[in-house]
Design goal:
Elements lengths: L10 E8 L12 H15 L11 E3 L8 E4 L5 E6 L3 E7 L2 E6 L4 E8 L2 E8 L7 E7 L5 E4 L5 E6 L5 E7 L4 E2 L8 E6 L2 E6 L8 E3 L2 E13 H21 L9 H13 L2 H17 L7 E7 L5 E3 L7
Parallel strand pairs: 1-8
Antiparallel strand pairs: 1-16, 1-17, 2-3, 3-4, 4-9, 5-6, 6-7, 7-8, 9-15, 10-11, 11-12, 12-17, 13-16, 14-15, 17-18, 18-19
Length: 313
C-alpha cells in the first residue's frame, strides 16, 4: 500500500509485493532478499522510487520503535503498521525490514518524497491473502470508504462537507507477468486490510494503494455546491475579515459550511485567501452541477479541478 500526495499532502504508502517467483517451499525471506523483491516490484509497476521525504518527518520501524509514522509540519501524525506479530526488524540500505511470523512474509518500509511506502513481500503460495494494518489517525479525522474502492481521510463538517486531509487510493495488483490480480481494501474500525487473491498467479504479486496525508488539505464540492457557495461568499469573507475564525455567527447553507471547513483546516488569513480564490473562480467559470471538483484549502492555490465523482459522495 503506498501513501501518495494530494494537494500538498504528506503521504504514506503501502505496497504488497507477494512472493518470489514460484518459490512455494521457502518459509522465511532474508531481509536483503525482501528488499530486492520489493525494489523489483516498485520498478515493474513504475511507482515512485524511494527518496527522502519532503515537508514532513518519517520514522521507519526499528527494534526500539516498531511502528512507521509520518508527521506533518503541524505535528499531526499518521501511523500504519502490520498487526501481524514479527520475529525481528532489520535495517537494510536505509530501509526497514520486518519479518512476520506468518509463512514466508516480510514488510519492507521505505521513505518516499510524500511519506513512506510499505511493501509486504511474500515468498510462498501458502502465505495469507489478507494483510491487516493498524491505521492510526488524528482524533478528528475519520476514514471513509467510497464506491470506487478508495478510502478518504476526512475531517467532517456541516451540510455534508468535509475537509479531505488524505486518501488511500484505489488499490492495484499485478503478478510477475504483468497480469492483473484481484485486490481490494477493507476497513474495520482502525484496521485496514488489503485482500490480495494471489493464489494461481505468477509470483511475485504486487498490490499498491496510495495514501495522501500531511501538509495539504482539500475540499471537494459539486458544481451545484460551488454555485450555492457563491451566493453567500461575500458575507462569509466580510465576517472572517472582521472577526476571524472565532466569529460567533456564520452565513447559513453551503457558504457557512465551507467557512467552517476552511477555518478548521487553516488559520484565518489562509481561510480568507481560500474563500476569496474560490469566490473569484466561481464567478469566472461555469461549473457542471453534477461534476465533482477539488479545491485546495491549504495551501490556497485558487485552482478548481474536476476529480472522480466518488470524492463528493
Amino acid at each position: 500500500m503506498q501513501f501518495h500526495k494530494t494537494a500538498g499532502a504528506g503521504v504514506l504508502a503501502l505496497a504488497l509485493a507477494v512472493g518470489f517467483a514460484n518459490n512455494a517451499s521457502a518459509e522465511e525471506i532474508a531481509p536483503d532478499q525482501a528488499v530486492s523483491a520489493a525494489d523489483a516490484a516498485v520498478a515493474a509497476q513504475g511507482a515512485p522510487p524511494s527518496s527522502a521525504p519532503q515537508g514532513l518527518t518519517v520514522d521507519l520501524p526499528s527494534a526500539g520503535k516498531p511502528v512507521a509514522a509520518a508527521r506533518a509540519a503541524d505535528g499531526s501524525t499518521v501511523t500504519l503498521e502490520s498487526s501481524t506479530p514479527s520475529t525481528g526488524v532489520s535495517p537494510v540500505g536505509g530501509k526497514s525490514v520486518k519479518t512476520l511470523s506468518v509463512p514466508s512474509s516480510s514488510v519492507v518500509t521505505e521513505s518516499v518524497s510524500d511519506g513512506f511506502r510499505k511493501l509486504v513481500v511474500i515468498g510462498s503460495a501458502n502465505s495469507p491473502t489478507h494483510f491487516d494494518f493498524d491505521l492510526g489517525l488524528p482524533q478528528e479525522i475519520v476514514a471513509r470508504p467510497v464506491s470506487d474502492g478508495s478510502i478518504l481521510l476526512q475531517q467532517p463538517g456541516d451540510n455534508g462537507l468535509a475537509a479531505t486531509v488524505g486518501k488511500i487510493e484505489v488499490p492495484w495488483a499485478k503478478d510477475a507477468k504483468g497480469a492483473d490480480v484481484s485486490t481490494r481494501l477493507e476497513m474495520n474500525g482502525e484496521v485496514l486490510t488489503q485482500v490480495v487473491d494471489h493464489h494461481g498467479a505468477a509470483y511475485p504479486v504486487t498490490a499498491d494503494p496510495m495514501l495522501d496525508f500531511g501538509s495539504g488539505v482539500d475540499l471537494n464540492l459539486t458544481g451545484e455546491q460551488i454555485r450555492e457557495f457563491e451566493f453567500g461568499a461575500g458575507a462569509a469573507i466580510s465576517a472572517l475579515a472582521l472577526a476571524g475564525c472565532g466569529l460567533a455567527t456564520l452565513p447559513t447553507g453551503v457558504a457557512g459550511a465551507v467557512v467552517k471547513v476552511a477555518c478548521a483546516a487553516s488559520a484565518t488569513p489562509n481561510a480568507i485567501d481560500y474563500l476569496t480564490s474560490l469566490m473569484d473562480g466561481s464567478a469566472a467559470e461555469e461549473y457542471d452541477a453534477d461534476t465533482c471538483y477539488q479545491t485546495s484549502i491549504l495551501p490556497p492555490t485558487g485552482e478548481v479541478v474536476p476529480v472522480a465523482a466518488s470524492n463528493c459522495e
